[in-house]
TrEMBL record:
Pfam families for the chain: TetR_N
Keywords: DNA-binding
Protein name, UniProt field: TetR/AcrR family transcriptional regulator
DNA-binding region: 23-42
Organism of this sequence: Roseburia porci
Domain HTH tetR-type intervals: 1-60
A GO MF label: DNA binding
Length: 187
C-alpha cells in the first residue's frame, strides 16, 4: 500500500476515535511515523482532510461498483444497497461528528456536498432499470436524489444524530428503507 493510502487509512482510524480534534501527532503515532514524513505527503491537516474526502468517496464508489456487478442481487436489492452503501472498513466510523465541518472547515464541507451531489449516474440507471422491470413503481428520480442528499447533508450540518443517540449507519439505513419501502404498512 502506498504511503498516501496508509496515511489516509490511519487518519480515518484516528478520526473515528477523536473526531475533528485529531492532530498530525495523533496520525504520526498511529503510524509510528514522524510528522515530518506525513508533511512530505500532505502539506497540512486541512489538505490531508480535503484529500480524505475524495479517498472516502472513491472507496464508496468502488463498493457501489461491486454491488452493481453482483449478479446474485435483484434490482430492488441493488438499489437498496447502493443508496446506503458504506465500504466495509467504514462501518464503524462515527460520521456523526462531521456536523462540525461546516463551521470549522467550510472548504472541506463544500467538497463533501459536491461529492454527495455528483456520481449518481449508476444509481439513476439502476432505478430506471427497476421501473422498466416492474420491480419498483415509476418515481421522480430527482425527488429521490434530493431527499437522500438533503438528509445526509442535514446529518452533516447538525448534531441531530448525536443528540438522539443514532449511529450514522443506522440513520442511513432507515432513510434508505423509507425511500425504498415507504412508511405505509403493506398487507
Amino acid at each position: 500500500m502506498e504511503q498516501r493510502e496508509k496515511i489516509l487509512d490511519a487518519t480515518i482510524r484516528v478520526f473515528n476515535r477523536k473526531g475533528l480534534k485529531f492532530t498530525m501527532d495523533d496520525i504520526a503515532g498511529e503510524l509510528s511515523m514522524s510528522k515530518k514524513t506525513i508533511y512530505t505527503v500532505f502539506r497540512d491537516k486541512e489538505t490531508l482532510f480535503f484529500q480524505m474526502v475524495d479517498y472516502c468517496f472513491d472507496n464508496i464508489k468502488e463498493s457501489e461498483q461491486a454491488i452493481l456487478n453482483d449478479t446474485s442481487l435483484k434490482t430492488e436489492d441493488k438499489i437498496r444497497k447502493i443508496l446506503g452503501v458504506l465500504p466495509e472498513g467504514y462501518k464503524d466510523i462515527d460520521f456523526r461528528n462531521l456536523y462540525q465541518l461546516k463551521d470549522k472547515y467550510p472548504k472541506i464541507y463544500h467538497k463533501v456536498e459536491e461529492r454527495l451531489e455528483t456520481g449518481w449516474e449508476n444509481t439513476i440507471a439502476l432505478i430506471h432499470q427497476g421501473v422498466e422491470e416492474g420491480a419498483i413503481r415509476p418515481v421522480n428520480i430527482i425527488v429521490i436524489k434530493t431527499m437522500l442528499e438533503a438528509t445526509i447533508e442535514q446529518f452533516f450540518q447538525r448534531d441531530v444524530l448525536i443528540t438522539n443517540g443514532i449511529s450514522y449507519g443506522d440513520a442511513l439505513q432507515e432513510v434508505v428503507d423509507i425511500i425504498v419501502d415507504g412508511i405505509a404498512i403493506r398487507k
